[in-house]
Amino acid sequence: MGMIEKTLMNRKQLVLFLLLSIASLMHGQNKNSDEYFTHHRASITGALTTSDAYQLQFSYHYMFWKYFGVGGSFGWWKNWYEDGRASGSNWSIDDDDNKPGNLYLRPSVMLKSPAIGIGQFALSVYAEPGIMLNVPYQRVCIEKTTGLIVTDYDYISTNKGQWFAMDIHLGINADIGPCGFSVGYLMSNLDIYSQYRHLSYDGISFSKFYPMHPFMQGAYLTLSYNF
After folding, report:
1. In a 3-state reduction of DSSP, which class is residue 27?
2. Residue 216 and residue 53: Cα distance in Å, rounded?
3. What's the gap between Cα 105 and its chain centre?
4. CA–CA separation, 84 vs 92, rounded Å?
5. How many whole angstroms separate alpha carbon 143 and alpha carbon 28?
6. CB burial class (10 A; 0-12, 13-18, 19+) of residue 189?
7. Fewer beta carbons below 10 Å: N end or C end of the chain?
8. pLDDT digits (tens, 9 = 90+) for 34-83
9. Beta partners for 170?
């Protein structure tokens, strides 16, 4: 056999070896990403939004398929920066109550793309559309003052305003064994001051004190466990 034939044979063997290696690696990655698939996924999510509010929620999803699940969350959102303050002659809203917050339930659907194995991680594109069902009630404390001294307290409440909102989480999900995390972007039509604008005291409507925020976006981080 001549030198040329030997060279061609060696190259063919090398190509065959590389193809078998790549196939073996891809099979191992797919096996690794499927190995820990279970029907139950629990998670905790934290988020910061452009409405100067943070969110914290605990979730559970039942995974009918490794790419699709249905479940829900129980959470809390809270405004951390004052963007207005209701006040009048000898009265003002309490400092703590001037930052709205609410509890919510959030049924949602989880969608994941097929995973790509990178090292020990199985990476996938992640989407979770949901519906936020807030408590349809707000109650705040009013401080009555004489000069700079608080002399009495009063309470007002409302069951009006937005309590239903739609939102979606979009991002990248990374799983390693039964554990995982997701990071990305969220958007929602929740207006955190909607209920406050329906409050009034001493004939003065709170609507002029608090701005409208009909669109909210932000960043989130989710830690999850599959069991």
Report:
1. helix
2. 10
3. 13
4. 12
5. 65
6. middle
7. N
8. 456 899 999 999 999 999 999 999 999 999 999 999 999 999 999 999 88
9. 127, 185
